[in-house]
Design a protein that fits this description.
This protein is about 20% helix and about 35% strand. It is an alpha+beta fold and about 180 residues long. It starts with a helix and ends in a 22-residue tail after the last strand.
């Protein structure tokens, strides 16, 4: 039979012990985020970005929500495997974003510039895409990136560099 003082001691011990860290807190504590190189070949030059990858359904659902800033050459890639018609909104996104919908042949099928923060209006290319790339709002215009430009990522983006990833996108698009 357990007596009241023993129960009280167990209760106090449990109250004083710290809870295990949540996965969200662990993720926030990590200062370094793994990135993937993305290269866009545009009429006005070749542009490299180092982006985060939203590889899981949970990461794709969260995306860049609640971020207060995005590096000049940063962003997030949403791979679609198999390709599908993707639709995004900005409900809990605090900063404007450029959304580049990448066709299965590697070309930018649709570019939505400066998507409005907090908007609930869905944005879609209306066709199956291999990925969606989100960049800081206005960055595509700054660099002259447009629909029809070609996108590669992973080892295909930097063939001379060493990239440890299975996430490579190397479409052979004639220019």
């Amino acid at each position: 039979m357990i007596r009241f003082p023993a129960l009280l001691a167990l209760g106090l011990l449990a109250a004083c012990s710290s809870p295990p860290p949540s996965p969200e807190n662990n993720a926030q504590a990590q200062a370094v985020v793994a990135t993937l190189p993305v290269v866009i070949r545009a009429a006005k030059g070749v542009h490299r970005f180092d982006v985060e990858v939203a590889a899981t359904p949970q990461a794709q659902e969260k995306g860049l929500m609640f971020r207060k800033e995005l590096p000049e050459n940063g962003g997030m890639l949403f791979p679609m495997d198999p390709p599908r018609t993707a639709s995004f909104w900005m409900k809990d996104t605090l900063i404007p974003l450029d959304m580049l919908f990448v066709h299965t042949d590697g070309t930018i099928a649709f570019l939505n510039s400066n998507a409005e923060p907090y908007s609930r209006i869905p944005v879609s290319a209306g066709i199956p895409v291999a990925a969606v790339l989100e960049l800081r709002g206005g960055r595509a215009a700054e660099l002259g990136i447009a629909e029809g430009d070609v996108v590669n990522w992973g080892g295909c983006a930097v063939p001379d560099g060493k990239v440890a990833t299975d996430l490579n996108f190397c479409p052979a698009v004639p220019r």
